[in-house]
Amino acid sequence: MDDLLASLNDAQKQAVLTTDGPVMVMAGAGSGKTKVLTTRIAYLIESKSLPLSSVLAVTFTNKAALEMKERIKKLIDVETKYMWVSTFHSLCSRLLRNEIHHLPPFHSHFTILDEEDSLKIVKEIMKEEQIETYKPKEIRKLISKAKNFSHFEIKNPQLSALYEHIATLYQRRLEENNQLDFDDLIIKTIELFKKNPSVLEKYQYQFEYILVDEFQDTNDLQYQLIWMLSARYRNLFVVGDDFQSIYSFRGANIGNIRRFQEDFTGYQLILLEQNYRSTAQILNLANQIIAKNPNQIKKKLFTDNNSGMLPFFYQGQSAYAEVMFVIDKIKQLHLDQEEYRDMAILYRANYISRSFEDMLIKYQIPYRVYGGMSFFSRKEIKDMVAYLRLLLYSDDNFSFRRIINEPKRKIGPALLEKLQQDAYIHQCSWFEDIPRYEGKGQGVAALKDFYRMIVSIRAQLDNIALPDLIDILLDETGYQRMLTESEEDRERLDNILEFKTILKETSEDTDGSNAEKLDRLLQDLALRSDSDDDRAENDNCVRLTTFHQAKGLEFNTVFMVAMEEGIFPSDFHDDELDLEEERRICYVGITRAKKRLYLSCADTRYVFGVQKDMVVSRFIKEIGNDLFESPMSHLKKQPARSISVQKQSEHSVWKVGDKLNHKAFGDGMV
């Protein structure tokens, strides 16, 4: 048992050993919260001889859940696949698979819709209702907001009435097709518990110890779910950092920290303040900026690493000068043996990346914009998943509609509408209705052929190696022929072939028949999100990303660019609370840096095609001169200066009276 605790500092040990009752851990950036969480789980299981199923640990990403499982296995060598360590959505999916029959007409083979799928349903409804006043994406966002924000209100009466109508039809459509969207997973779980107290009691008894990661990011529904599950034993352990609460736009409620304090009287508060990531010089900046926010749980990061360089501030005459400053530093650092993958450029607004991308390309510096479309969001992968779902679930109308004409089979919308009506009369799914559907013509023949093909492949399912199923689908459906007709589709085919690897891993790592293995895989795939896209993780390239996307990452060298009023803090902050969140975003950016931190801004910048004079971010001013390496002219009153038009050299410094020539504007004088 002592081996588990040997590498922990005193505060971390306290967090692990305080096993019973409500505990709140405020863990500063880089303070080892994942280590504390996983060690605590291992300690609970070992010291109390707990069954694995009695501990519930909830986090926000599949990557974080997987990392926790791997660390626990290294600590105590248990079979983690029997543990309840997952995201909120995975937890609710698992609970609903077992219990949703208590909420008829739903049953356990419900489909989980992602953003694209649910948007498609909204589009269909708006088309049927002949609604063209608003865009489907706008309505879909409103539906999601209404589910995630406890205080949601549409001020426009016309839009409000329209939204209510579409949202009602949307939920009815989902219910008719045994579908849930991501937001419904938590909502339906809470509904299940409220309507069926015995089901709630069952899981309250099971989960003797509950742990929640990134508690500051929970929304009202997530808090309610955890509160319900922990009501019996009250052994609730939450880890978070109010300094890093930056997701209010997703519904995250920093007020849940205060709710915990009120709901769980007698709770213990533990602070993790020792940072193992950054130098003292970087932490001084972080502490200085976040101290400006009121109403926080007071803590101050410290470290034993005092050997770093002061962060550097650069103020360029133009956005071009700022970009070239960053490019020069990257080139120099790389010459000094710094890997590209250890450097990141962080920005508050996505449009800022373009100028950096241009110069990175020009100087042949490899880079990647972090947070692009994930593997499982690509059309060809979603098509394959739909084929697999239809193989398993004949009643999956949504998957049937997705792939009935992928590739094209000349089965027109009129025929599909008739099939839908016929299926409704016979009280069966569209696919199940095909054998009894009467009609003639090319479309009907293609429909019958499609049915026979799916039934034939389904019959082979338990007699083949699971990865071979992809080859069979590609060949018999004609999907491979469709992709090989065009050279540009080759990458899509490669993506599908990569999908075979996942089936191979599923086949090796999951027990049961092929159908059971496939069912488990499809459940897991439905819970993946764009935020789990780690395609760039092993590529040696500079990362370009927003501050929000960078949360949870760390780099030897960080460039925080465009530190200007209106960009950072954003123009969109309406009140003091919004400004406090902007300041927390700045804190998150600073604490991504391990060794070197550069902050920069420009005096002038093109913003949406208009060249503007910019003002240095108030955050730079709040930090102060003493914590930067460079003298900071922004602290002195500056005379108004004309817009810089030079681009000949990033190192040029114009003086009053200098003559210059510009290729567009001609001769002039500063």
Automatic annotation (TrEMBL):
Residues that coordinate or bind ATP: 27-34
Listed GO biological process terms: recombinational repair
Catalyses which reaction(s): ATP + H2O = ADP + phosphate + H(+); Couples ATP hydrolysis with the unwinding of duplex DNA by translocating in the 3'-5' direction
Gene3D superfamilies xrefs: 1.10.10.160, P-loop containing nucleotide triphosphate hydrolases, PCRA, domain 4
GO molecular function: 3'-5' DNA helicase activity; ATP binding; DNA binding; hydrolase activity
Domain UvrD-like helicase C-terminal residues, every copy: 280-552
EC number from the UniProt entry: 5.6.2.4
GO cellular component terms listed in the entry, alphabetical order: cytosol; DNA helicase complex
Keywords: ATP-binding, DNA-binding, Helicase, Hydrolase, Isomerase, Nucleotide-binding
One of the Pfam families matching this protein, by short name: UvrD-helicase
PROSITE patterns in the cross-refs: UVRD_HELICASE_ATP_BIND, UVRD_HELICASE_CTER
The name this protein goes by in its record: DNA 3'-5' helicase
Taxonomy of the source species: Bacteria, Bacillati, Mycoplasmatota, Mollicutes, Candidatus Pelethenecus
